[in-house]
Amino acid sequence: MQNLLAEIHPTRWTFLWDALTTITMHLCAAALILIVGWWVARRAARSLNRLLTSQSRMDATLRPVISDTCLWSIRVVSIIGALSQLGIQTASIVAVLGAAGLAIGLALQGTMQNIAAGIMLLLLRPFKVGDYIDSGTGSVSGTVDEISLFTTRLTKSDGVCEYVPNSALWSNSIRNYNRNPTRRLDLEVEISVRDDVDGALAALRKLAAADPRALDKPAPQVMVARFDDSTVVLNIRVWANIDVFWDMRWDLARQVRQTLNNAQCGLPVRTRELHIVQNIGTDESAATHVPAAPRTSVQ
Asked: Where are the transmembrane segments (predicted)?
């Protein structure tokens, strides 16, 4: 009996040692695969980003998306390789990932909407990096810096950085101010109703046509927009390229007043006439019904 126990104990310890050694080797291999995979993914994404940046034909909108796709593709492969070292079969990994994806998709419906909206923005391309956009509600506006799968990064006109969920952009109308090469300038000015309207129109038309940034086709237009309280509102319409649009707007706004002064059109003062109608018959009727004051007699 003692001989049998002496033979069993060394065999048991040898089995435990071999099992522990095997598990340790698999754990070390899995950890090594994860570390190397994370390092390779980061280096590959950076190298791909530099390569795409050096390519002039590569759109800046797609560059971060391609880099992120490369990064996470290598990381997913490394995770699957690490799990396979632990004895987990690939079929079970796919089943677990599918179930986890379904659960996460149901829990993060808003995030999934942002991803779907980001994919549609990248495919349909209503705007690209460098365009100035605003939403239909007017609450979102700025220059596009980056489009990712979840958010779009904008720089507002005052220099503030704003991250907008893709679903907020995709669910509303988008105005792109850089898509068309030309843009129309509408500038309203006022003159008095007593001024020479035809002379003011001719002077403003000459001013708009003399600006070298104004396009000949369509030709500049000046018309009477409407009549307000003792004023005539004139509208100047000039087409220009988008790169000189704002400079021309500020210059025309500064020159309009002097041009109207030269045309003998002064600064209008809004006035209103107030007519007070007094009903005399009602006043007389009211006066006849006023009771007389009581009289007192002194004996």
From this structure: 20-41, 88-108
Q: Domains in the chain, start-ordered, CATH in brackets? A: 14-52+63-116 (1.10.287.1260), 125-176 (2.30.30.60), 182-263 (3.30.70.100)
Per-residue pLDDT tens over the stretch 117-132? 888 887 888 888 889 9
Give the Cα separation of 111 and 287 in Å (integer). Answer: 79
Torsion of CA 28, 31, 32, 36, to 10 degrees: 180
Rounded Cα gap, residues 282 and 154, in angstroms: 68
* Listed residue (33, 42, 37) closest to 84, CA to CA: 33
Reported confidence tier of residue 5, pLDDT bands at 50, 70, 90 = very low
pLDDT at 184 over 90: yes
How many other CB atoms are found less than 10 A from the CB of residue 86? 11
pLDDT band at 299 (very low <50, low <70, confident <90, very high): very low
| Residue among 230, 232, 234 nearest 252 (CA) | 234
CB burial readout 214-247, b (16+ within 10 A) else e? beeeeebbbeebeeeeebbebebbbbbeeeebee
Helix (H, G, I), strand (E, B) or coil at 234: strand
Structure tokens at 259: 């041009």
Query: Which residue, among 167, 149, 171, has the nearest Cα to 113 in the 3D structure?
Result: 167
Distance (Å, whole) CA 225 – CA 268: 16
